[in-house]
Design brief:
The complex is a heterodimer of chains A (208) and B (719). With 208 residues, chain A is an alpha/beta fold. In chain A, 34% of the residues lie in helices and 26% in strands. Chain A contains six helices and twelve strands. In chain A, the strands form three sheets. Chain A has a six-stranded parallel beta sheet. The N and C termini of chain A lie close together (9 Å). Chain B is α/β, with parallel strands linked by helices. The model of chain B has no long low-confidence stretch (mean pLDDT 94). Classes of the chains: A alpha/beta (208), B alpha/beta (719). Strand 9 of chain A pairs antiparallel with strand 9 of chain B, so a sheet runs across the interface. The complex binds iron/sulfur cluster (2 copies). One iron/sulfur cluster (SF4) binds next to helix 14 and helix 16 of chain B.
Chain lengths: 208, 719
């Protein structure tokens, strides 16, 4: 993968507030995700605003929250999941792979590996046909996504030949994700995390 | 939503809207920021090429609408999706209500969809006893306020954080801080609950990709992902024009859509749904998926030679972002459901004549929307066509009918103009340059006092021509002058200035064909298309293009009308067609002619050292895409000083400023403020209408900035 594309991807992703890091081995990704989880504020519902007196119903929900920090990593290969689980356990983070519907109030970290990257716009492409993956990339407060550099393409046009077969394998739910969830609907002021993640961390993995 | 029944009511509403300080400021700041944002987003890209490609691909899709629908249906059904075709808005709503009933759904969560706004889906579903919640933040806000969107991409752009805080306080029964990040958290919390409880998710669709049977959704918030994931039933409501043959077609539109909408390279989420996906909230772990295609006049429109192009629209909202009128009055007064330039047109086709008839008159025809359109739709022309169509159906107002009749008869028109010279005497100011107050038969003069209007000149240009026609022994070029009525009868000095400059080269034979008449733009603006056709024909016959190398006019509006509208107006006249093409081809504006063709040297002028600002007439900068020539021309004799928003309309628009004085006045005030801020001695422009407007405004407000035609400013420094 050309250096130029990596730089472009980084620039574009950072422009929409993504945090981009280079890693050599997948193990570094697990450590990174656990680290982000540990350093993150303890209240997993912070984003829902329970530190503010938003409404009585909202504060009820905050009290009902689980005490643990939760990380979700659906659709990881078995060996990868085992490695991540080891790292998580050591740090006292609860790792889950499914049943995301039971965590709709929010989880701390969603961990995933992207299927493609698009340099031109700094986008990640994730085959989200698994409902759990779809939810983990939406419900988590922070998303940590590994992008194998062998999967980085210049633009959506360049990726077309690979996107098409994914879409042809029905049913399919494909997502281009660029930066964190955001809105500018109130006075055009950019606000992050209106429905989905507040942060997106992209780990560029030198896999080749 | 546009509700007025009488034009007076509409004017009243427009004035009230103009008084909404917050909205105006918000739209204004956005309009300015948008311009830079968009330019950055497209930097280094071939935008014109992309727009052409989109237009071509969309046209192809529109032509094959039925075929594409059938293919999509077949493909999607083979994967287990239920596909419906609704002929009317009502039918679409019924189908969706039925799906809800059949699947025992009580609560609906919606992702933003203009198509659902078009059909008034919420009202229908609520009447059927369903609870419907919008999940897009802006849509949710306006839903709770019981309003329609005021922008296609930013539905709540007209509201302040304080209004939102008050609204949210009502929802949560708690006082809310008017702090935007906190308000967004309130929405996140409240809406998350709604997703969980909903049995049915309704989305629109930006693309329906035929080759894969895929629905494509473009959002920033990610609400569409949740709304299509959590509930067990998903219904996508899709306008038939969203069908695109291939994924490539969709990706191509995706390159333009976010960039043109808000200056983003891409939105946070683009979602492609192919077939009923896994849904653990459903009994068999599988989503129930329906796609409802909406016709509502689209099929008929697709066959219309002229209007089919509006189906190219990709709903980027850019045509509203740049519209000077939308910027002043906002979407609730510049649209019905769809807003901005495309909104005026869609309102007519999707919501009927009664909803559209005032809206279409409010367009000042500045062309900003056409220039920015991602799909290359000729919006201003289509708006005028609709204006004319409505008048044909409803009967023409006495005033515009009269104007049409008069203009069709050149001698009568010219006699009337000359007689006005005498009729206006009692109304003229002492120095005779401006009309003191206007005879009330023409208009309510109180509304017009934001600018002074000029009197008719003592001698028309055509009556002086014989005595000033330059003698040229060996001409290398033959040029016909087209004056237009304003320069002929009101500002002949502008024509004389141009003649003086051109004559100084000694190489051009100038001619002023006497049978020329008004270009016809004013009647076209008033919706009198037949009169416009008639006048166009007379002018083409009056100025035989084969006899000239150029047909030069110093009026930007005339120039662009002669060049671009004549071929359209006369397209049904087979005999005249070759002549019209030749005619249009030879039309040129003054600045381009002296700067690009004659390449007049700056040596011919005594530089003044005066700071001169420039106002770019809409019909020159966008109509003819002439941008450099006038500025460089000014710079030959003076110091051209750039000022802000040079290319934004001054609010003249011919009869427009008579009909919508409040808007014209506000546009003019902004224009003058921008010019004044440039600390200039004079303003140059190249359209007599703009001179009339800006000079009249400066005079009425006692400012001593001169306003002149580029030709005059050059002529006064000619060595
Ligand atoms: S021509 Fe100008 S005024 Fe009319 S809709 Fe387009 S941008 Fe608005
Ligand atoms: S008409 Fe053109 S500019 Fe307006 S919304 Fe449609 S595509 Fe965008």
């Amino acid at each position: 993968m050309s250096q130029e594309h990596i730089e472009l991807f980084t620039k574009k992703a950072e422009a929409v507030s993504a945090i981009v890091k280079r890693i050599d081995k997948l193990n570094e990704a697990y450590a990174y995700a656990v680290d982000v989880c540990l350093n993150k504020n303890a209240c997993q519902l912070l984003l829902s605003g329970c530190e503010n007196a938003i409404s009585d119903e909202a504060s009820d929900l905050c009290e009902a929250k689980a005490a643990d920090k939760v990380m979700a990593a659906p659709k990881l290969a078995d060996d990868q999941y085992a490695e991540l689980a080891k790292a998580a356990e050591k740090a006292g983070v609860k790792l889950i792979a499914d049943g995301l519907r039971n965590h709709l109030a929010g989880i701390d970290i969603g961990f995933a590996v992207a299927d493609l990257g698009l340099a031109e716009t700094g986008s990640l492409v994730l085959d989200s046909s698994s409902e759990d993956l779809r939810l983990s990339t939406m419900v988590s407060e922070i998303n940590v996504v590994v992008l194998p550099l062998s999967k980085l393409r210049a633009s959506s046009y360049e990726a077309e030949a690979e996107l098409l077969p994914m879409m042809q394998k029905a049913p399919n739910y494909l997502a281009f994700i660029t930066g964190a969830s955001r809105t500018a609907d109130i006075e055009r002021v950019l606000a992050i995390g209106v429905h989905g993640p507040l942060e997106l961390h992209i780990l560029l993995w030198e896999d080749a | 939503m546009q509700t007025a029944v009488k034009i007076e009511e509409y004017l009243q509403e427009v004035e009230e809207s103009l008084g909404n300080e917050f909205q105006r400021k918000a739209l204004d700041t956005f309009a300015v920021a948008y311009r830079t944002g968009r330019a950055n987003a497209f930097a280094g890209m071939d935008v014109k090429g992309l727009v052409d490609e989109i237009a071509q691909a969309k046209d192809d899709g529109i032509r094959r609408m039925d075929e594409l629908y059938n293919q999509f249906k077949q493909k999607a059904e083979s994967m287990g999706v239920h596909v419906h075709l609704a002929e009317t808005a009502e039918e679409a709503n019924r189908i969706i209500a039925r799906i809800a009933k059949d699947n025992d759904c009580k609560k609906v969560i919606k992702a933003k969809s203009m198509t659902a706004e078009e059909t008034h889906l919420n009202t229908h579903l609520e009447a059927e006893g369903l609870k419907v919640v919008e999940s897009d933040l802006g849509e949710w806000i306006i839903q709770m306020r019981g309003e329609g969107p005021s922008h296609m991409v930013m539905p709540a752009i007209h509201l302040s954080r304080f209004q939102v805080a008050d609204l949210f306080a009502g929802v949560t029964k708690k006082e809310q801080d008017p702090d935007i990040p906190k308000l967004v958290k309130v929405a996140r919390r409240e809406l998350r609950k709604e997703y969980v409880e909903a049995d049915m998710g309704i989305s629109g669709s930006n693309f329906a990709v035929v080759e894969t049977g895929t629905i494509g959704l473009v959002t920033n918030e990610g609400n569409a992902r949740l709304a299509t994931t959590l509930p067990r039933v998903h219904v996508a409501l899709v306008g038939l024009e969203k069908l695109t043959p291939t994924l490539h077609d969709a990706l191509r539109i995706l390159r333009a859509l976010p960039r043109n909408a808000t200056g983003q390279q891409i939105t946070s989420y683009v979602t492609w749904i192919t077939g009923p996906n896994e849904c653990k909230g459903a009994p068999d772990d599988k989503k129930v998926m329906h796609v409802v295609f909406l016709d509502n006049g689209r099929k008929k429109l697709a066959k219309d030679k002229d209007f089919a192009q509006i189906l190219r629209c990709i709903r980027c909202g850019a045509c509203a972002n740049v519209c000077p009128v939308y910027r002043l009055v906002g979407g609730h007064k510049y649209g019905h459901v769809y807003i901005g330039a495309i909104g005026l047109i869609m309102t007519y086709f999707f919501h009927g004549k009664d909803k559209a008839k005032f809206l279409v008159q409010n367009c000042v025809n500045c062309g900003a929307c056409k220039e920015v359109c991602a799909a290359g739709i000729d919006l201003p022309r289509l708006i005028k066509e609709i204006h004319a169509m409505i008048q044909d159906e409803d009967g023409h107002p006495a005033q515009s009918k009269l104007m049409g009749l008069v203009l069709k008869n050149r001698t009568l028109f010219h006699t009337l103009l000359k007689n006005m010279r005498w009729a206006q005497k009692p109304f003229a100011e002492r120095d005779g340059q401006y009309i003191r107050h206007l005879p009330t038969v023409f208009m309510k003069d109180k509304d017009q006092d934001f600018r002074k209007l000029p009197t008719i000149a003592d001698k028309a240009f055509r009556d002086e021509w014989k005595s000033i026609k330059p003698e040229v022994r060996n001409p290398t070029l033959r040029v016909a002058l087209f004056s237009g009525c304003v320069q002929d009868f009101v500002y002949p000095e502008q024509m004389k200035a141009a003649v003086k400059i051109i004559a100084s080269t000694g190489t051009v034979e100038l001619d002023y064909p006497m049978k020329q008449s008004c270009c016809g733009l004013p009647v076209n603006m008033m919706g009198e298309k037949q009169a416009a056709v008639e006048v166009a024909r007379q002018n083409v016959l009056a100025i035989d293009p084969s006899k000239y190398d150029y047909i030069m006019t110093m009026c930007a509006s005339c120039a662009s009308h002669l060049k671009h509208s004549y071929p359209k107006l006369l397209e049904n006249d087979a005999d005249l067609a070759p002549k019209v093409a030749q005619f249009a081809d030879k039309v040129i504006d003054f600045s381009s002619f002296i700067h690009d063709v004659l390449q007049i040297s700056s040596m011919k002028f005594n530089r003044s050292g005066k700071r001169i600002g420039y106002h770019a007439p809409c019909h020159l900068c966008r109509g003819l895409e002439v941008r450099e020539a006038p500025r460089e021309a000014i710079n030959m004799a003076h110091d051209y000083v750039p000022t802000s928003e040079e290319e934004v309309c001054c609010g003249f628009g011919g009869s427009y400023s008579m009909k919508f004085p409040a808007i014209s006045k506000t546009l003019l005030a902004k224009k003058m403020a921008n010019l004044e801020a440039g600390d200039i001695a004079a303003v140059a422009t190249d359209c007599p209408g703009c001179v009339m407007q800006i000079r009249g405004g400066m005079k009425a407000s006692g400012k001593d900035i001169e306003v002149k035609h580029v030709a005059e400013l050059l002529a006064e420094r000619l060595r």
